[in-house]
Design brief:
- This protein has 245 residues and is mainly alpha-helical.
- It has one domain.
- 57% of the residues lie in helices and 4% in strands.
- The protein contains 9 helices and 4 strands, in the order ααβααβααβααβα.
- The strands form 2 sheets. The chain has a two-stranded antiparallel ribbon with strand order 1-2. Strands 3-4 form a two-stranded antiparallel sheet.
- The longest helix has 40 residues.
- The radius of gyration is 21 Å and the shape is globular.
- The model has no long low-confidence stretch (mean pLDDT 84).
- It comes from Haptolina ericina.
- This is EF-hand domain-containing protein.
């Protein structure tokens, strides 16, 4: 009888914990939707409005922005050739509102994305950084980071070297651009939300060891296998968490 009582108490505690989790999740979902509704109706441009855009639109926006008159794609976004303007124009057509292009905020956002501070944002870096500002699940952000032609892991098969290059690129961009992007968000919040703390990437040796475990004796792996690993491997999955919940 004592054992049955303990079992029932444990069951009730578990049920209460699950109910509390669901209530917290429901409140958070309501908060996010209320913020998005406010953003859709706002007349004030905001970096936060990028949460209205899905990650899969990022790659399409970059392809649109970096293709000049059908004669091939440029390698990077720039302000002076209007490719950055074109990228924002495409994203605005897919949900970003009100328009950011031709605003001081757009220039500040570009500067935040420009991790090298040389006036140029390579397509692979832009795809990853912009995806961190959008809504969606981690796998969608992984797809955005890997689907641009210049991404190290673009293609049907991914070699071990390409895998390491992709992780290194995402780590570097997140380290350099995230603090500036978070600072822009801090001035653009339309409702209470928790801004992330500065994250410390996993040690390079740990990442290399994880890649070794993934590849084993294989020279290359299907891209879907690699992308699933990016989402589930504890040493690299935090790279694809959204900058702001």
């Amino acid at each position: 009888e004592e054992a049955a009582t303990k079992t029932e108490a444990a069951r009730q505690a578990s049920a209460q914990a699950e109910l509390a989790r669901q209530e917290t999740q429901s409140r958070e979902s309501a908060r996010r939707e209320a913020e998005r509704a406010k953003l859709r109706l706002s007349a004030q441009p905001s970096v936060r409005s990028l949460v209205l855009v899905a990650p899969e639109h990022v790659v399409s926006a970059l392809r649109f922005a970096l293709t000049a008159d059908g004669r091939g794609a440029a390698a990077a976004l720039r302000q002076e050739d209007r490719s950055w303007w074109k990228c924002l124009h495409y994203l605005e057509a897919d949900g970003l509102t009100p328009p950011l292009k031709a605003t001081e905020l757009a220039a500040s956002l570009f500067s935040a994305l420009d991790s090298s501070q040389n006036g140029s944002v390579p397509a692979a870096e832009a795809a990853f950084a912009l995806s961190l500002l959008t809504a969606g699940v981690p796998r969608s952000r992984v797809n955005a980071a890997c689907d641009v032609p210049d991404a190290p892991a673009a293609g049907a098969m991914v070699s071990r070297a390409q895998a390491a290059q992709q992780v290194h690129l995402c780590t570097r961009v997140r380290q350099l651009s995230a603090p500036r992007l978070i600072a822009l968000h801090a001035t653009a919040m339309t409702s209470p939300a928790t801004l992330p703390q500065a994250s410390t990437p996993a040690p390079a040796a740990s990442v290399e060891a994880a890649i070794d475990r993934l590849y084993g004796s294989s020279a290359s792996l299907p891209t879907d296998t690699f992308r699933n690993w990016l989402v589930t491997e504890p040493t690299v999955a935090p790279l694809f968490a959204p900058l702001v919940a």
